[in-house]
Every structure is written in C-alpha cells, then in structure tokens.
Amino acid sequence: MLLTLSTTHHPATDLGYLLHKNPHRPQSFELSFGHAHVFYPEATEARTTVALLLEVDPVGLVRERRGPSGEGGVLAQYVNDRPYVASSFLSVALARTFRNAMSGSSKERPDLARQPLPLVARLSVLPCRGGEPFLRKLFEPLGYTVTATRHALDETVPDWGHSRYFTVTLEAHTRLSDLLTHLYVLIPVLDDDKHYWVGDEEVEKLLRHGEGWLAAHPERDIITRRYLRHRRSLAREALERLSGDEAPEPEEGTQARNQEEAALESRLSLNEQRLQAVVAVLKESGATRVVDLGCGEGKLLRALLKERQFTDILGMDVSFRSLEIARDRLDLDRMPELQRRRIQLLHGSLMYRDARLAGYEAASVIEVIEHLDPPRLAAFERVLFESARPNVVALTTPNAEYNVRFESLPAGTFRHRDHRFEWTRAEFESWAQGICERFGYSVRFLPVGPLDPDVGAPTQMAVFAR
Ligand code: SAH
C-alpha cells in the first residue's frame, strides 16, 4: 500500500521539517501488523514528495489474533486485500510515523505547520464503499479537488466489471496537519471494513481528530457510524458529543463574553444600529428570500420577521446551542402557521459548501468573520461568493481603529475574546476588493454607529452586489 504526499511550496524540501523525516534518509518502522517505510521519491526545492509504503502481514495478523477473524472462513483470514489497500492500518501507520505533523507541531518550522500549503495526496489503492460519489462527498466539502480512477475487478476479464478499488488524488491548499487528520479519519470510513481497533477509546480519538471540521461536515453522521463500525451505542455517544461540541466555546463562557462585548458597545446601542442598517440594506435590495449567516441567537431574524417583504427567511449557525436559544426567543414552536412558514433555522458551517444556501437573493453576515481563523477565510469566501452566490451581501465587522474610543478597553485588545482579528478600514476594504475581483461582485462601504472624524465608525459594513 502506497501513499504519497507532494508539495510545491517553496522550498518544497521544508516538507522534511514538517514531517520530522529527513529527505535523504529512508526509514522503516515496525508496527504490530507489519512495516512502514518512509522515503522521498523526489526532494527538490520546486517539488518534494514523501512516500509511505505500508507492508501488512496478513499471516502475522491472524497469529496475533488482530486481524479480521471469524466471518469469511479460514482462507479469507490469509488471503484478503489488507496488504494492498488503504485501510485502518494505513491510518495507524500515519499516526505512528507522522505523529507530530498530524498534531500540527514542528520544531523547526512552527509557522509553516500552521499555514495552508499546496498539497497533493495520492493513494494507490483506496477501497471506496459507496463509490466515487461518496468519495467526493467526503472530501469535496473539506476543500479538496478529487481525481479518482476506478480499477476493473480483473483486467483480463472485462465482463466482470468494476471493482471497489480506486486510485485517488486529493489536492488542496491546506495545512499538512489537516490533510493528515482528514486521511486518518476518512480512509477507514471509505474502506468500511473491519478494524481491529474499535473500542470506547475510538470515540475519543474520533472527537479529537475531528475537532474543527467533523461537527459541521455534511456527512458527519455516516462518517461517525462507519468510523465506529456501525456500533450504535458508540456512534450515538459520539454524535451527541459532536453536537455539544459545536458551540465554539462553553456556553457560560460565551454568554459572559458576549455580555462584555455588549456592555462595551451598549452606550451606543450599536447592536440596534447595526441591525437597522442591515435590515435597510436587505429591504432596499428588493429581496424576498434572505439568509442570515452566523445568525447566533436570532436578533436579526426577529427584525426580518417584522418586514413583510421577506417571505423566506433562513438563519444558519454552527452553534447548535445558539440555534436552540434562537428557537426559544423567536417562540418558533408557538408561532402561527403562516408566520412559521416564513422562517427556518439551519445547523451548518460557513466553512462548507452547502446546497441549502442556494437560491437566496440576499445574505447578511453580521459580526461573524472576525470569529473565523484567517487561514479559513478563503473557504468562507468560496462558500458564500462562489457557491451560494446571492445577489446582495451585507457584511459587518468591527472597525479596529475605533477601539481607542472605548475607554474601558485596554489598548491592543479585541472587543471580544473569541475574535481572531479586528481590521482597520483599509484592511477590510482591501479584503473586500479582493472578493470583488475574484468572484465578480462590486462593493460599497457604509459606516455604522457614530462617525468619528479620525477613526471612523465603530462598525464597518460592506455591501456586495453582483
Ligand atoms: N450575527 C449574530 C451573531 C454574531 S456572533 C449577531 O450579530 O448577533 C458570531 C456567530 O458566528 C456565532 O453565533 C457563531 O456561532 C457563528 N459562527 C462562528 N463560526 C461559524 C461558522 N464557521 N459557520 C457558521 N457560523 C459560525
């Protein structure tokens, strides 16, 4: 079984530092089920490829009583595809040989380990139960370009048709640790065969490796069930915990922080002014179908419901807890039928393309982008401006220049502890212009809140139109 990873990052030989494996020194590792060999078929500054070659010993597996046993008869224990295909054994080998890289740490290149890089993974033989469509459903939402070549069952007997084996290439601009973790979790899911390692601790492993992407993956349920080998009780536990984990931070913490931010801005009732400004833009757009992305506890949704122009209102958020609060506050369960039909809440993430976001004429994204990790902004941009593509987008974010006017805010700190960044007007404007160039939109900027001659308004809003 062969897995190769290539990069064209410059200098590409840095891959050796990220993997903690010297490109000039082939290494072998003994595993309980065979051997893993790591070597570099190419290592130049322009392009470097590392190979992980896994030899699985099926006879040893039976002797050690680790491999598939029982079903399929004795012969199947010795003659099977395990030595040749990517399976949970490859995942174990990945975790053993590239442990540091998988956790995102690198002694020599710590910054690079946190950066998205141009990466290509190639799996020589990947069994795909569910075929190419399922393969795509797993990897495409994570931003990979997938190429798959299906192999015949027997090339000399074409009538037998296709096998379930594919040669697969996955290409993305992503962090190495993300790529390794996605492979670690998803290879056994595609194989959907027996692992010898499913137990309670697998729930922990799945949650740990799924952190940051699994909770909101459109195929989350089937990934979880297959990864945990259809053991209902384990899968249920994992899914419950994944839903709980979706809130970006523990509930009490979030509420406290939201209050801190609210207190800071309350003097201006900035929140109210922001909502009014966004409602005005959405009304002016003439849209009837609108979506509020990162709707939180539903403050804008309430305002939108008051406007009869909006016949189809969708609120989307990654935090299940916030959606529950929104549901209560809007009193959805007791809303008259006609009113109830106008509004829907959707649990989803702005990191993933989502067909359910298509067809909305206008979108709002209020105070959300500053909660996203900067390397992930590109994924968000594609989800909204390339895939969902509403005619109008109203997007707000704090204006960092205004922070000096908040007396209680220590210099150099953000308004909310979960903010990953706060931009000056110039930074925001240049980001927005980039979007226009890449996705064919135009943009205008509106200040929200009292306008200060030196530092501008506390909130900045961009209105994109196409
Ligand atoms: N728009 C609301 C909430 C802003 S707080 C308001 O103005 O009141 C930011 C919100 O973005 C939170 O509810 C958070 O859960 C949500 N969020 C953060 N990351 C997200 C993601 N990747 N996808 C969808 N929502 C996300």
UniProtKB/TrEMBL annotation:
Residues 239-263 are annotated as: Disordered. Signal peptide: none annotated. It is an enzyme of class 2 (transferase). GO terms for biological process: regulatory ncRNA-mediated gene silencing; RNA methylation. Residues 1-242 form the Hen1 N-terminal domain. Residues 291-383 form the Methyltransferase type domain. SUPFAM superfamilies: S-adenosyl-L-methionine-dependent methyltransferases. One of its GO terms (molecular function) is RNA binding. InterPro entries: 3'-RNA_MeTfrase_Hen1_bac, Hen1, Hen1_N, Hen1_N_sf, Methyltransf_12, SAM-dependent_MTases_sf. It catalyses: small RNA 3'-end nucleotide + S-adenosyl-L-methionine = small RNA 3'-end 2'-O-methylnucleotide + S-adenosyl-L-homocysteine + H(+). Its EC number is 2.1.1.386. Belongs to the methyltransferase superfamily. HEN1 family. This is Small RNA 2'-O-methyltransferase. The lineage of its organism: Bacteria, Pseudomonadati, Myxococcota, Myxococcia, Myxococcales.
